[in-house]
């Protein structure tokens, strides 16, 4: 809960308004969640110095963040049939239920477009200015033979309603049941009939891709031990080594670009030598040098959360799952009969915190979970510890 509180606290309060059940408009600051799913409530402040308050769908008829998003409360007939192939209805016709929802305004003009989205469900609605809002009908269903079919009545609904010289039947036949396609059609129609209209928010084209180089330094330590021999324990010197990685980041198109997924392959290496005394009996002592030659490509799959400090600076937190792909992988003594080991390890978890400036330069401190590099052996064990300072530059 504390971690969640840190994350959500970074979402800013922006200029907004709501209209109460009596028709009164209240200007305020609304917590802009950049809602992926249609909300049932929102948080606001009357001024930046006042406390946070909450309104629900029963309290207001309209609310919005100026210039970004707006929601209207309405009671509509909605078909919530699943699009999951294993849960398809066997009925072609929509199965409507009355629900009171906050619909997201997409286009407001003579002909208006709205959307409703929740987990696993995406529906669009429309109306002529001043008339009731109705659903644009799209439904997947299964036939008696178990085949998937689609009811695409929304195309006919819009063909019957949106008559204009620049729109022909092909525009509707090729129309897809998604935000981008419908947004474009309603925008073109309102322009065709020379109607003033408002378009709320940009139609996001999916994930925003970013590429970065990630050089840095690793702080490494390694010790090995054999549970069957007390004189096989070796603690190697701590090492500071160079690392180099690249990163492909995919910024998710919701929550004000605060979440992203990334892939980060990194080259890292560790080389060390240590003298091991493997026999010590009174005046008899025998030693051998033990050498570690370990280099690898660490392939990290990660999730990142940004916390905005200002327009050009932000903090971030990373959670990574790291696969290890060895390039050189030996721990071997001059006396190979004493130690001759091949490095093998399981994936591990890493956590990082950092700062980025101007969406280009970044600095991160990262700590990795302790790894056993000798998982292929029953009696040999190791402690491999790694922490890093990672620099970044995004293109």
Uncertain residue ranges: 1-9
- How far apart, in Å, are the first and last alpha carbons? 35 Å
Give the tally of β-strands. 23
- Over all CA atoms, what is the radius of gyration? 30 Å
Percentage of β-strand residues: over 45%
- Individual helix count: 4
Number of domains: 2
- What's the overall average pLDDT, rounded? 90
Order of helices and strands: HEEEEEEEEEEEEHHHEEEEEEEEEEE
Tell the overall outline.
elongated
Supply the helix-strand structural class: mainly beta
Helix content: under 10%
**Sheet bearing the most strands, described?**
11 strands, antiparallel
Please render the helix and strand layout as text:
Layout: H1 2-9, E1 13-20, E2 25-31, E3 41-45, E4 53-56, E5 60-65, E6 69-79, E7 96-108, E8 111-118, E9 121-128, E10 134-136, E11 139-142, E12 148-151, H2 153-161, H3 169-173, H4 179-192, E13 198-199, E14 208-226, E15 229-235, E16 239-251, E17 259-281, E18 284-308, E19 313-333, E20 340-342, E21 348-357, E22 361-368, E23 380-394
